[in-house]
């Protein structure tokens, strides 16, 4: 793992820092530091416009190969980009799923026709994606998916039926990648397909899920004979698990750098409030802030270590398996720190009937961090069995 940056990397740092200073202003000034956890509902249209602005400057998909419109940026340069983006207060990326998950997955596993069709819209910041993995009975146990895909020979297309849940920004997305069962007799990770679906069609119903924060960036998505062309399955029927696991490798890879950017913005806001209301004079609060800073640095270094040995197909070193457990616990503790820094103000709403400030929203959102994406208990099993090679837990 490299912990230092070359002269070329530092020149790159200056380039992105200057561009952000010149462009994250005017109509985009209000977006600084917005769009993080618990705040994802804010300014969606403006943040989409910001994605197009990034694309005009050549700052979307910088890690993609140049042949697909990216810069082919090194891991070090991608780290630099996210550091400077955080330092400038760049907003949460509306294009995160497409850029960090869909794009790399299609580059690794997709057909050339799929790449030519879907990658340009992601690169240009004009087409946005959501993730159709979790279901009511398939959360941490992803292989338990019940959504079905049937190929209609007459129409020459797939018909998707079932339900997905906790689908972030489904109401703001043009496309969704969906794991569905192509073999109705199959169980577990066998007999699955990985499908690319247009959201704007009669067979898809998006229903918001209201959260503790009062917002609804998560959704339930129902598929009732939703159409998917024969060309829009990634890989062959039955290979969906391989593609899905490759995508999860990308989710625990470079895309983690963007997540850490949002965490840094939240920590900066906590420090600002602590200085403003005097909480920073409390030695215990100061120590907890220092611990949060150290924890975020550790998170960054582990990501760099993991990425340094990753493959182009999403495969990562075993150290990647600790990431979800680590960040979710760290972020939950950050939410507690935010409330203690706010003090009595943490129990007072900004306005009625239910208007939370940014740190209150973040605190409530972090209550779910150790549950979604695989509970902490599931993560510990994964680390024990897959990383450490310990005996599998007995299963009924």
From TrEMBL:
Residues 130-225 form the Acyl-CoA oxidase/dehydrogenase middle domain. Belongs to the acyl-CoA dehydrogenase family. The lineage of its organism: Bacteria, Pseudomonadati, Pseudomonadota, Gammaproteobacteria, Cellvibrionales. Signal peptide: none annotated. SUPFAM superfamilies: Acyl-CoA dehydrogenase C-terminal domain-like (SSF47203), Acyl-CoA dehydrogenase NM domain-like (SSF56645). This is Acyl-CoA dehydrogenase. It comes from Candidatus Litorirhabdus singularis. Pfam families: Acyl-CoA_dh_1 (PF00441), Acyl-CoA_dh_M (PF02770), Acyl-CoA_dh_N (PF02771). Residues 7-125 form the Acyl-CoA dehydrogenase/oxidase N-terminal domain. The keyword RNA-binding does not apply. Residues 238-387 form the Acyl-CoA dehydrogenase/oxidase C-terminal domain. Keywords: FAD, Flavoprotein, Oxidoreductase. Its cofactor is FAD.
């Amino acid at each position: 793992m490299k912990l230092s940056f070359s002269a070329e990397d530092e020149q790159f740092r200056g380039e992105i820092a200057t561009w952000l200073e010149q462009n994250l202003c005017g109509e985009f000034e209000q977006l600084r530091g917005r769009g993080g956890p618990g705040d994802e509902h804010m300014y969606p249209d403006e943040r989409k416009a910001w994605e197009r602005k990034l694309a005009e400057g050549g700052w979307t998909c910088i890690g993609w190969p140049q042949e697909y419109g990216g810069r082919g940026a090194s891991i070090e340069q991608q780290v630099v980009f996210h550091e400077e983006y955080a330092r400038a207060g760049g907003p949460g990326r509306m294009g995160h799923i497409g850029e960090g998950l869909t794009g790399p997955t299609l580059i690794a596993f997709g057909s050339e026709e799929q790449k030519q069709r879907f990658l340009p819209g992601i690169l240009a910041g004009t087409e946005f994606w959501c993730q159709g993995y979790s279901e009511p009975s398939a959360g941490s146990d992803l292989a338990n998916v019940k959504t079905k895909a049937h190929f209609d020979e007459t129409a020459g297309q797939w018909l998707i039926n079932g339900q997905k849940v906790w689908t972030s920004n489904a109401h703001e997305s043009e496309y969704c990648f969906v794991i569905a069962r192509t073999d109705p007799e199959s169980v577990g990770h066998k007999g699955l397909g990985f499908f690319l679906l247009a959201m704007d069609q009669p067979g898809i119903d998006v229903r918001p899920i209201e959260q503790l924060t009062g917002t609804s960036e998560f959704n339930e998505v129902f598929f009732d004979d939703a159409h998917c062309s024969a060309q829009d399955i990634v890989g062959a029927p039955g290979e969906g698990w391989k593609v899905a696991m490759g995508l999860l490798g990308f989710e625990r890879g470079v895309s983690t750098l963007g997540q850490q950017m949002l965490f840094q913005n939240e920590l900066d806001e906590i420090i600002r409030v602590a200085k403003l209301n005097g909480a920073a004079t409390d030695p215990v609060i100061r120590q907890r802030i220092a611990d949060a800073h150290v924890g975020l640095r550790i998170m960054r270094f582990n990501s760099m270590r993991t990425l340094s040995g990753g493959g182009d197909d999403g495969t990562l070193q075993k150290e990647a398996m600790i990431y979800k457990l680590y960040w979710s616990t760290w972020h939950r503790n950050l939410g507690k720190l935010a409330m203690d820094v706010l003090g009595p103000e943490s129990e007072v709403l900004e306005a009625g009937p239910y208007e939370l400030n940014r740190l209150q929203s973040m605190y409530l959102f972090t209550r779910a961090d150790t549950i979604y994406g695989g509970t902490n208990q599931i993560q510990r099993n994964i680390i024990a069995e897959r990383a450490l090679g310990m005996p599998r837990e007995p299963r009924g």
